[in-house]
Amino acid sequence: MAELKTPQELGTEKIGKLLIRYAVPAMIAMLASSLYNIVDRAFIGHGVGAMALSGLAVTFPLMNLSAALGSMVGVGSGTMISLKLGQKDNESAQKLFGNSVTMNIIIGVSFGLLSLIFINPILRLFGATDVTIGYAREYMTIILIGNAFTHLYLGINCILRAAGHPNKAMVATIGTVLLNTLLDYLFIMVFKWGIKGAAIATVISQVLAFVWQCIQLSDKSELIHLQRGIYRLRKDLVKNIITIGLSPCLMNAAACFVVLLINRGLLKYGSDVAIGAYSIVNSIGFLIVMMVMGFNQAMQPIAGYNYGARQYDRVLRVLYLTMFFGTCVTTLGFAIAEFLPDMCIRIFTDDPELTAIARVGMRLTFLIFPLVGSQMVSGNFFQSIGMPGKSILMSLSRQLLLLIPFLLILPRFYGINGIWYSMPASDILSVILGFSLLIPQIRKLKKQS
Amino acid sequence: MDKHYCICIGRMFCSGGRNIAALVAERLGIKVYDRDLLKKAAQNTGFSEEFFAEADEEKTRKGLRALFMNHLSSNGLSSNYLSNESIFNMQSDAIRHIHEQEDCVFIGRCSDYVLRESDRLLNVFISARTDDRVARVCRHADEGMTPSKALSLIEDIDRKRASYYNYFTGRKWGDSANYDICLNSTVLGFDKCADIIVELAKEKLGI
């Protein structure tokens, strides 16, 4: 959202060309963040063991919650800063930057401290058992100590994008992934530090990324740079940042709640191993979802601009094309999950019990995936054309509103498989909901064009 | 020095700001941009006018919908041209564009902030006594308008204008520090207000 000037090419250039051009950078950023997950879990699975993977998985809700708070500050300050830069109001943009840094430090430190104090009850709540809590605590303690740096690094990345440096943000993201992979190998495989090694690798790579960002931001000729006197919190700025960031924050916090339910369900009807299996399935699912999100990010400016300019035929064309790409991606995911599940699982583990459970989970979870692509695209489409309500409804329906009832009911009848069934079941309903919202909208657009 | 001058008039709801703006413009022989601004912004961008009307200063709502609208701007990786922020930026481009083209009066829409770098700018704020504004609302509204309804309408619209202005400018709406002169139309009357503004404009803007 660097520049809000309206590039005319959005209204004239070939849709396919535009979509690809906008999708590539978004895709790289999305892939990087999901690769990060996969790499960490792969090293822990192979280098430490199957139980360590389950220990890692019970920390996800806590990590999600932390990410939710981070996204609040990141999105809020990013939006405000690009607004101010658009008005050439650099002074206000600087103050917003300073305030966001302070907010990140305060939230990062206090979240880290609070979670450290209550680490045992929190992990128990998220599904840790006597077997897994050791791993979870070992990992989380180090992550929480570095929590403020995680927030700073992610927050500044949002600001770099807002300030017109998406490439720098991307370098930081990719750099962290590469460094983390290297350190994971060194700490887990060579030094045999166990799950602690993965946490140390994560913290070190984020601290280094943060240092690199600070070097980038110390250039005084840049619009946004480190400067004295901008860090004192101002009530109105903090209020604006929180108001804007609240919506993404709540969406992320909702995800945390769902993971909590899934973990506890898997534990109740299955075992610790099932939680580890879920983390494998989840990593693959996340990768696929993120790739669709990449296309969604690309569709947004194209559909939005053309909708504003009333070129509805172009709006529909970009919608269809994105749906096609989205469906291709999710169908590919479906095919791999159904026909080559062991190949994916082998990335994470060789443990036969874990592999068996993950195989079942994978086949069931991805059952409806060929249809999910179009659901995700249409949810984002509503966001692109300025209808946030429907967009939020659609994205919450699949991941929350429709999923939770299934998660609570199905396991009572089908045991652990009921948890896996819940995902395709909520997928089906949300696909139906999606189309029942989208088709009238398409008709309306056709009539108007 | 900028080629063209401009007078930005901020106003409380039903304080007579628009009437005063019209009088000033008539005396100086220039144009007033109120809603027309949205039309101009639409022409410049190729967007339809309704998007600008939707995001206009009195329309941004508090509560759930505001929270939803924020969802539109909620990612750093791609831009949403229909977000309130983007629409505001396009509208400000239109304000700057008009300011380069002609002398004029702008009503509201944060024009004082958008054009703050200009050296030929007069910032005015018009207020009026509340009872006077209530009476005006009742006079102009359809039947069935009661003073208590009028009062809550006034409070509502003022609050929306304030939150719009405060959000986009980071200043405080109606704060005398933002304006060159603040006039109370109940005390002075529309004509006198216009006289004062014109006189000041001639002196300050070198007309």
Structural classification of chain B: alpha/beta
- How is the largest sheet of chain B built, in terms of strand order? 2-3-1-4-5
Overall helicity of chain B: 40-55%
- pLDDT averaged residue by residue of chain A: 94
Tally of individual helices of chain B? 10
Kindly state the percentage of residues in helix of chain A.
over 70%
> Which spans of chain B have pLDDT < 50 for at least 5 consecutive residues?
none
- DSSP, total strands of chain A: 0
Alpha-carbon Rg of chain B, integer: 17 Å
Largest sheet of chain A, described in full?
none
Structural class of chain A: mainly alpha
Folded structure, characterized:
The complex is a heterodimer of chains A (449) and B (207). With 449 residues, chain A is mainly α. In chain A, 85% of the residues lie in helices and 0% in strands. Chain A contains 19 helices and no strands. Chain A has helices at 9-12, 15-47, 50-57, 60-86, 90-117, 119-125, 133-145, 147-162, 166-190, 195-217, 235-269, 272-308, 312-339, 341-348, 352-365, 369-384, 388-401, 403-414, 416-448. Chain A is globular, with a radius of gyration of 22 Å. Mean pLDDT of chain A is 94; it is low at 1-5. Chain B has 207 residues and is an alpha/beta fold. Chain B is 55% helix and 12% strand. Chain B has ten helices and five strands; from the N terminus they run βαβααααβαβααβαα. Chain B has helices spanning 17-28, 36-45, 49-54, 64-72, 84-101, 111-114, 130-140, 147-169, 185-188, 190-205, and strands spanning 6-11, 31-33, 104-107, 121-127, 181-184. A five-stranded parallel β-sheet of chain B has the order 2-3-1-4-5, with helices on both faces. In chain B, helix 1 crosses helix 10, helix 2 crosses helix 5 (84-101) and helix 7 packs across helix 8. The longest helix of chain B has 23 residues, at 147-169. Chain B is globular and about 50 Å long. Chains A and B meet through helix 2, helix 4, helix 8, helix 11 and helix 12 of A and helix 4, helix 5 and helix 8 of B.
